[in-house]
Amino acid sequence: MRRARLLIDTRAMRHNLGVARQASGTRSIFAAVKADGYGHGLLTAARAFSKAQTDGLAVATPGEGVALREAGLAERVLVLQGALTAEELDLAAHRSLELIFHDPAQLDMLERQAASLPAGCIRAWIKVDTGMHRAGLMPEDVQSARERLTHCPAVGGTVGLMTHFARADEPDSAPTEQQIETFRSIASDWTGETSLCNSAALLGASAAGGDWVRPGIMLYGGNPFIFGEAAQHRLQAAMTLKTVLVAVRTVTSGASVGYGGRFVAPETMPVGLASVGYGDGYPRHAPDGTPILVNGQRSQVIGRVSMDLVTVDLRGIKAQVGDEVECWGNGLPIDQVAQAAGTISYELMCQVSGQLRAEATILS
Ligand SMILES: *Cc1c(COP(=O)(O)O)cnc(C)c1O
Fold first, then answer.
1. Which amino acid residue places its CA nearest to atom 15 of ligand 1?
2. 32 C-alpha to center of ligand 1: Å?
3. Which pLDDT does position 193 carry in this prediction?
4. Mean pLDDT of 288-311
């Protein structure tokens, strides 16, 4: 229905899982597929990682885990936000979803519901706050939480322990090292499984250890760091957003282009009109100068992004109506567009419209 098209390259996703596998060594992998597989489609992503033999999948909510089970995926599934309601606990119990307990209210709820759940059917992880101060039990509360879980008849197996890093994407490794140290002091006599690393820590914090890693963004070809480039880590773009030029015109020197007249032509110049806009998920905040490819040639956005249209600087570029425009993907790293637009690749991926996702071309 739209002229803009989304291409999802599952071969790149499988390749990136291989990169993660290599970095993880002997550790097992929960591939993160939350937020509709970072915008690539929950099942598209999950099936790609399953085919490439991931050990497990990580989702945000039990509902996402149920969708994986209903699609026949049999890997271990870690629910990062755990269960909030009795219904979610029930789903987790009957669909073999592993629950993270990050708040005392979740333990209270489990104990209230335990009698109505099958014995030993819930695999539990404790999330400990080692410095991010977003979610997680404080270190001093881990021991009692572990005892409560161990004594709960609905919980089976040994309880896992995990944490999450706040600043693993930054060049300064000190805050991450501090979190690793805090984790170690709690986990020194832990008998269950442990997990620490997101993508950035998997590639950057080789001392973090743990039994499981939880990469997300790197599997889709996004750079997990706020410096450098995805290609340095041999990551390949899984998502390409493309469209076509629908008009080429000349704008005279001094004339302004688009809503608000943000761009004023410094000279008489050719301007292209690309059929993509914030209605497709292209970031409205992209300023003049945001990179975009026309016919494989690097160009830039000029003027404000509209709902269905973007105006493009065609100075020095060979282009005509019908030519291909790439917003990001194989030829233009999504991180460059994200940086120009003041955001991160994660947000651009998640923001692609549902319509484009539903009509995506899947390369396998
Ligand atoms: C989303 C998430 C991940 C994956 O993070 P990336 O930066 O995408 O690799 C890992 N762990 C937790 C708890 C998460 O919420």
1. 80
2. 7
3. 98
4. 98
